[in-house]
Amino acid sequence: MIRLEKRPQPSAIWKTVTPLLAVILTIVAGGLMFAALGTDPVAAIRTIFWDPLFHPQYASYSRPQLLVKAGPLILIAIGLSIGFRAGIWNIGAEGQYIIGAITGAGAGLALYPSEAWWIFPMMVAAGALGGWLWAMIPAILKTHFNTNEILVSLLLVYVAENLMASMAVGALRNPEGGGFPGSRNLSQWPAASNPELIAGTGMHWGVMAAFVAVILAYVLMSRHLTGFHIQLAGQAPRAAAFAGVRPERLVVFCLGLSGALAGLAGIFEVTGPAGQLSIDFNVGYGFTAIIVAFLGRLHPAGILLAGLLMALTYIGGELASFTLGIPAAAIQSFQGMLLFFLLAVDVLTNYRIRLGRTEAAT
Amino acid sequence: MTDALLSVEGLTKAYPGVVANDDVSFAVASGEVHALLGENGAGKSTLVKMIYGLVRPDAGQMHLSGKPHAPASPKEARAAGVAMVFQHFSLFDALDVAENVALGMETPPPRRTLARRIREMSEAYGLPLDPGRIVGDLSAGERQRVEIIRCLLQSPRLLIMDEPTSVLTPQEVRILFATLEKLSSEGTAILYISHKLEEIRTLCDGATILRQGRVVGSCTPAEKSAAELAEMMVGSTLSAPKRARHEAGEVALEIRGLSLPPAHAFGTPLRDISLTLRKGEVLGIGGVAGNGQDELLAALSGEMRSPAGRIELAGRDIGGLDPTGRRDLGLLTAPEERLGHAAAPDMSLTENALLTAHGRERLARHGFIDWSKARGFAERVITAFDVRTPGPENAARSLSGGNLQKFVIGREVLQRPAVLVVNQPTWGVDASAAAAIRQALLDLAAEGAAVIVISQDLDELMEISDRFAALNEGRLSDPRPAEGLSVEEIGLMLGGAHDLERPGGDRPAARPASDAGAAEAHPS
């Protein structure tokens, strides 16, 4: 008989090993799924994990995509992870990402076609502010009316999506766009564009921001009292109250921070890789970032690696559906498996498996 | 005491890294009340769990009435005639007494039959209990009766009781002891786990003393003094806490007419609490758990804020300050619940030291934590309070209850509080650790700090308090000098008329406080 025995303290080794184990299990289970769909599993896995970086034909296009996709994922996941550590569940980063793009782009387009140097920084600030404000809705509802921030933040994603659609065909539509939905192309307006900083790498200001966020989050969580109190509140709420942590302030801080970072990701995206606001601007970074945050163990360095890995499965998945004809839904299942297995093997961090006779817990 | 009902020979049980029981042998006769005496971690719990079928021994054997006894489960142990009352009750608050009893039976009889049997049993053994009452409304003593009745309905030959008096008032203890004496006179053997030496001396016929998993002696408790028993248990001489005589100083803390609503649905509101605490004084607050102790601590710690003018620290109104603000002014607290309230279970001792000490010990500058300084402070607590742990990087939950309690109390004491408030400072802590904690509290008071000790352990309160007050349903009695208070007076201060019912007989005369928890002389 198999049973689980609680460890006296969380295992440091398993904490590092479980993400790798989850990746391996995902590859195995995903391979089986691809085989069941009639695709050669080895080819599918190779297309997802290897070809985007090393395929002689596709790599020159897909390699820069790695940072382009990983940047927003990491930036958003860093913000989410801090809230998650405190037990504050912002599920609506997708909405804050969209609102950040709208407010940032809107603030810039109001000044079109000015060429002032401060337009781009001002748009970035407006984007962060927009994401922050959007996240303040669930925060204030929670602190004042004790609503559930999971539901409120999630539902606000759909509000944000509709708002964006209306912006793309209404207020922010390109007046010179011949009636097509979508805003002016910001990446072609030098004062507002977020260009590739080093050619062929995909590096842009958003990726820089993501790297800075990783470092600052590390300092906050491991060196600062605020980070300590965030972890305390997540692990032992009563002990946090005893220590003097005010839960309402933490809710506002964590939701605000994750909203601002998601908003930043949005404005960097709309001024750079996406180029313009359009009806299909958002592609799910805000949701995928939740997986990234957990895959990275809610630790900044882990999130950096997990973001790169998730970006790889995104690019590789596209490549696989393009070259091998794997349905997009199968790729999404594959990504979902990653979170599933991670949560499943997570048990090993706090418990050890014992084989043998049952003995009542003492 | 001729033929043994239960005999245990060479019982051994090892867990990874620790031998819980090493070659333990002892015997209990029919009708004997036998004490298992030992500090926390001495192996008492493991031993009775093996007898009750919860844990399988690695080696050794047991015999019950001459037959081999090797229960694979509590069910088999119950079938063999062994019953156990745990320290922590396993009752459902929302169900009534009869339903709770039925849940613990293999084949419960129809409700009416069961209710009748519960009534009969409770009358026969002097444990007044109404089978129709909802358990959530019962006092701790009454809940324990539900557990006892549940065991007695199985007509056990051996009844195991794990620290049964830790939650009882003196009056309830007397009722319990009368029941146990009646049971033993009918031939039921009782295995009694406790570290309250006085009650073992009055109640028990024989005692087996365990230390670090080994039997280190056996005796007839009545023939030994409490100090001798403690020495056998600890293996060294225990010194009683020393109190320096001192004059009460100026007012350190003043509470005036404080009333607060309960913090949660099952809490107790505080009702019109007033007290004056002077420097160098230890105020003991007694009372059965759930009468507002947690709320009083929260009101003092700052977890619950108070209206203006209700709480003053050295003349300054602190009712609106949060825990951090109060700590800065020197009001420190240690809540009852060690894991999850006073300390974060999964965090290291260093992190837990930081939890309350970052302000007064300057473990952080501009919010940035000085981890080496925090570690140094944790190490100081560990050394000064003899916390048994490999080091400050270990998680709080890896410590035993007593060691964590020493850490939690030590963390506050070393911050040199002006006023220290502790709730149940020695609950579940072994004798030597408890003595160390009490001594630390007295030393703190001797240095001029004012100390409030909230406790259910009246012996402890009488030992260290200058004045005593009782908390009952959120009301605090007027504090009275602890010296010269009798158990009977204390019982009346604790109030709670439902605790005073007693099987037959008159109320005994007032007795000195040192006998708190003891019953009439036991026929041995």
From TrEMBL, chain A:
- Keywords assigned by UniProt, alphabetized: Cell membrane, Membrane, Sugar transport, Transmembrane, Transmembrane helix, Transport
**Where primarily located?**
membrane
Instruction: Specify the protein's topology with respect to the membrane.
Output: Multi-pass membrane protein
Residue spans crossing the bilayer: 12-37, 66-88, 95-112, 118-141, 150-172, 203-221, 250-268, 274-296, 303-324, 330-348
Q: Provide a Gene Ontology MF annotation, just one.
A: transmembrane transporter activity
Q: Name one Pfam family in it.
A: BPD_transp_2
Q: Could you tell me where this protein is found in the cell?
A: Cell membrane
Q: What is one GO cellular-component annotation here? A: plasma membrane
Q: Does the keyword RNA-binding apply?
A: no
Q: What is this protein called?
A: Simple sugar transport system permease protein
TrEMBL record, chain B:
Segments crossing the lipid bilayer: none
Taking every annotated instance into account, which residue ranges of this chain make up the domain ABC transporter? 6-237, 255-498
Please identify the protein, giving its name as recorded.
Nucleoside ABC transporter ATP-binding protein
- Composition bias of kind Low complexity appears in 510-524
Location, primary (coarse class): membrane
Q: Where in the cell is it found?
A: Cell membrane
Report the SMART domains cross-referenced here. AAA
Xref: InterPro entries: AAA+_ATPase, ABC_carbohydrate_import_ATPase, ABC_transporter-like_ATP-bd, ABC_transporter-like_CS, P-loop_NTPase
The Gene Ontology terms for molecular function here are: ATP binding; ATP hydrolysis activity
Q: How does it sit in the membrane?
A: Peripheral membrane protein
* UniProtKB keywords: ATP-binding, Cell membrane, Membrane, Nucleotide-binding, Repeat, Sugar transport, Translocase, Transport
Q: Where is the signal peptide?
A: none
| Cellular component, GO annotation | plasma membrane
